[in-house]
Amino acid sequence: MGESRRAQGLPTRAGYLERWSALHGGYDPGRSRLVRGWLSLTYLLARPLALARVPPDAVTLGGAAIGLGVPLGASVGGHWPALAAVVVLLVAVVDGLDGAVAVLTDRATRWGHVLDSVADRLTDCAFLLSLGLLGAPWPLAVAAALLTYTSEYLRARAAAGGMADIGVVTVWERPSRVAVTAVGCLAAGLDPSRADEWATLLAAAGTGLAVVGLAQLAVVARRRLRG
After folding, report:
1. pLDDT tens figures, 151-167
2. What integer pLDDT is reported at residue 223 of this predicted model?
3. Which residues, 6 or more positions from 33, have their beta carbon under 8 angstroms from its beta carbon?
4. Distances (CA, A) of 82 to 93, 186, 214
């Protein structure tokens, strides 16, 4: 009965999406099936944590700590990178839970937003540089990481300059980075003799997507900020 009462205090999925939109500059999740589907999944997974009153910042820090273990799995070699792929997917799930818990419990704060962004950038770096540890040319792995940071910096500065929402969902958002890293780690773990080839292929794909994503965001940000 107590849990039922607490659950009644949590918003419905529709209410959660409305709260999320308000906290992201009015961006409508319905504009992207990927975004709406991801938010619906995190809503379901975050409800137990919200009922248990787990602090959102604790979820953020836990996800970052797990993510920093991905390079370790990638560097060991053999079949271990396959386990690193599982860790990447786990981090992706946890990454969405902190914000969902904050929204569900009405505990979203500006500090929590900053902490989440810092944690995301740390794990982005850990993910993409793991491809270098798997055998991809370091210039490719570093280029993918730098382009990712540049995109996120552009979005942050555009938001500070008056862009009302996230601008545009590009081809190189967080889910794409997760997919590239997870596929690279999984392929390298299942086929260790060709780990460097798989890592190079995925690093090249990531760099290409990062270039396109940066261009997409730059065009939209320029249009929005010029009125």
Report:
1. 999 999 999 999 877 78
2. 94
3. none
4. 17, 4, 29
